[in-house]
């Protein structure tokens, strides 16, 4: 085998599950077809198709790809798209229904970390046993033991039974063993999401070292920044089928578009008329058609007289985007149909991180803008908000909302308190889970750069000066 030959070669892979509506159907399926065949052979009965008591479900269909030494491939897809099934087939713990899978070399499968550990044994005993099971010779295990334990860094717990470990310690030890077995293929299923950030950094550094020494890496993750950062290529699975295979940046875009249920470009005839003759307030630039996502399936909390008819997420040029970099500007655009007269419309968005924490929320009351002072029933309110993403890399959701306040209050907003505003503010329509996007690290001169640490990049300055004290210098000189 040459260095360029694939270590993983998957051709036309399919996996079919049998779904039984009742447990008794499983039993019938085990017995009845056999009886049927028997009766058929004896010629006592009619020899037709044996009855079937299950429904077929294809978790994977016609999946093909190759991975070469030193390559890293990302696998992405929504829940239930077939990722775990694919990994289990690659790891050899499940057999495919159709197609061919060829895997060359030793696999480190970081799938169910620690599943080979015996809870009664100490960490030390489990390392020695597990490393042997994973293919190291006794001599190799002894040589690497200190490195493995050093990597796990769980201190004196190594001499305790693993049943006393926290889940984090357990995973650290299991990962440490897998990362030192000289695997030529490393399969990871979001295993790195566990453990603290220091340990995660160590894991990624180790993966990078394994990859540069020629190991092939397969990483399954819902984190698009991780996929983009660690994989050159990725495949997007959708309902068990390969929706896309190619560069990971493009794959993550396809994945987000898939999730946003993007509307096909609307025919010209149903285009929303520009707010021209009757327009009040500011001119609101519309994004391109492909940036719009389908809001019909989203749950809207409305006063019954307003509803969001279209919504889009894009960049400043109006191009569809769901993946951004730190410092980029995201544009949220929404249109609302109002079936009652309202005074000043207020539009706002809220951005939350993957832990549900509000990272940023702002509405049009909080910025100096021009707004219509009266919107008659039957109008469309178009809103566009731009936000500079000076936030941490990660995944975010956004919510959008429209409200109204009396025109009188808008006119004297300089002197209106937050409490007064809150009391007069009338919510018209709110979508709590409008969509999501991801933020990756910034690129400066082609080099990935973390612009700040933490959730938000707060405006501020840093100054550095140095003062040399004559006395201190003399002292130093005397000492010399
Ligand atoms: N043993 C099984 N019997 C029947 N259906 C199954 C079985 N295991 C998985 N499935 C179905 O196969 C599909 C793919 O499952 P799989 O676990 O591979 O998806 P996944 O992409 O890994 O999802 P997740 O992101 O939620 O882990 C799902 O619809 C799942 O319900």
Automatic annotation (TrEMBL):
<dbReference type="InterPro" id="IPR017871">
    <property type="entry name" value="ABC_transporter-like_CS"/>
</dbReference>
<comment type="similarity">
    <text>Belongs to the ABC transporter superfamily.</text>
</comment>
<dbReference type="InterPro" id="IPR003439">
    <property type="entry name" value="ABC_transporter-like_ATP-bd"/>
</dbReference>
<keyword id="KW-0067">ATP-binding</keyword>
<dbReference type="Pfam" id="PF00005">
    <property type="entry name" value="ABC_tran"/>
</dbReference>
<dbReference type="InterPro" id="IPR015860">
    <property type="entry name" value="ABC_transpr_TagH-like"/>
</dbReference>
<dbReference type="GO" id="GO:0005524">
    <property type="term" value="F:ATP binding"/>
</dbReference>
<dbReference type="GO" id="GO:0016020">
    <property type="term" value="C:membrane"/>
</dbReference>
<dbReference type="InterPro" id="IPR003593">
    <property type="entry name" value="AAA+_ATPase"/>
</dbReference>
<dbReference type="Pfam" id="PF14524">
    <property type="entry name" value="Wzt_C"/>
</dbReference>
<keyword id="KW-0547">Nucleotide-binding</keyword>
<dbReference type="GO" id="GO:0016887">
    <property type="term" value="F:ATP hydrolysis activity"/>
</dbReference>
<feature type="domain" description="ABC transporter">
    <location>
        <begin position="45"/>
        <end position="264"/>
    </location>
</feature>
<protein>
    <submittedName>
        <fullName>ABC transporter ATP-binding protein</fullName>
    </submittedName>
</protein>
<dbReference type="GO" id="GO:0140359">
    <property type="term" value="F:ABC-type transporter activity"/>
</dbReference>
<dbReference type="InterPro" id="IPR027417">
    <property type="entry name" value="P-loop_NTPase"/>
</dbReference>
<keyword id="KW-0813">Transport</keyword>
<dbReference type="InterPro" id="IPR050683">
    <property type="entry name" value="Bact_Polysacc_Export_ATP-bd"/>
</dbReference>
<dbReference type="InterPro" id="IPR029439">
    <property type="entry name" value="Wzt_C"/>
</dbReference>
């Amino acid at each position: 085998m040459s260095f360029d030959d694939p270590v993983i070669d998957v051709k036309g892979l399919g996996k079919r599950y049998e779904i039984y509506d009742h447990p008794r159907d499983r039993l019938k399926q085990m017995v009845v077809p056999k009886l049927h065949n028997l009766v058929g052979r004896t010629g006592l009965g009619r020899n037709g198709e044996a009855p079937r008591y299950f429904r077929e479900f294809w978790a994977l269909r016609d999946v093909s790809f190759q991975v070469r030494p030193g390559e890293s491939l990302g696998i992405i897809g929504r829940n239930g798209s077939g990722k775990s099934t694919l990994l289990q087939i690659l790891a050899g713990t499940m057999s495919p229904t159709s197609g061919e899978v060829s895997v060359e070399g030793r696999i480190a499968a970081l799938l169910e970390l620690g599943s080979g550990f015996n809870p009664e044994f100490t960490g030390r005993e489990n390392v020695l046993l597990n490393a042997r099971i994973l293919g190291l010779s006794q001599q190799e295990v002894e040589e690497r033991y200190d490195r493995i334990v050093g990597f796990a860094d769980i201190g004196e717990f190594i001499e305790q039974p693993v049943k006393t470990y926290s889940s984090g310690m357990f995973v650290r030890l299991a990962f440490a063993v897998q990362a030192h077995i000289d695997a030529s293929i490393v399969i990871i299923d979001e295993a790195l999401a566990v453990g603290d950030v220091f340990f995660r950094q160590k894991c990624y550094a180790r993966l990078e070292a394994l990859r540069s020494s020629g190991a092939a890496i397969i990483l399954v993750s819902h984190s698009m920044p991780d996929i983009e950062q660690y994989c050159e290529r990725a495949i997007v699975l959708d309902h068990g089928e390969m929706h896309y295979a190619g560069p990971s940046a493009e794959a993550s875009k396809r994945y987000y578009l898939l999730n946003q249920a993007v509307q096909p470009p609307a025919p010209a005839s149903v285009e929303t008329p520009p707010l021209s003759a009757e327009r009040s307030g500011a001119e609101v630039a519309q994004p391109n058609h492909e940036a719009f996502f389908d809001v019909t399936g989203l749950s809207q909390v409305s006063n019954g007289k307003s509803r969001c008819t279209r919504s889009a997420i894009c960049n400043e040029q109006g191009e569809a985007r769901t993946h951004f970099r730190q410092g980029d500007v995201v544009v949220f655009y929404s249109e609302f149909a109002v079936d009652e007269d309202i005074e000043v419309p207020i539009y706002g968005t809220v951005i939350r991180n993957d832990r549900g924490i509000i990272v940023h929320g702002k509405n049009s009351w909080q910025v100096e803008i021009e707004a219509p002072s009266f919107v008659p029933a039957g109008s469309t309110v178009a809103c566009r908000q731009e936000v500079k993403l000076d936030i941490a890399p990660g995944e975010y959701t956004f919510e959008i909302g429209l409200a109204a306040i009396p025109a009188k209050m808008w006119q004297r907003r300089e002197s209106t308190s937050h409490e007064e505003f809150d009391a007069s503010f009338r919510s018209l329509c709110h979508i709590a889970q409008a969509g999501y996007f991801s933020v990756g690290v910034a690129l400066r001169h082609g080099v990935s750069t973390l612009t700040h640490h933490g959730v938000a990049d707060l405006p501020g300055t840093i100054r550095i000066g140095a003062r040399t004290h004559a006395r201190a210098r003399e002292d130093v000189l005397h000492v010399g």
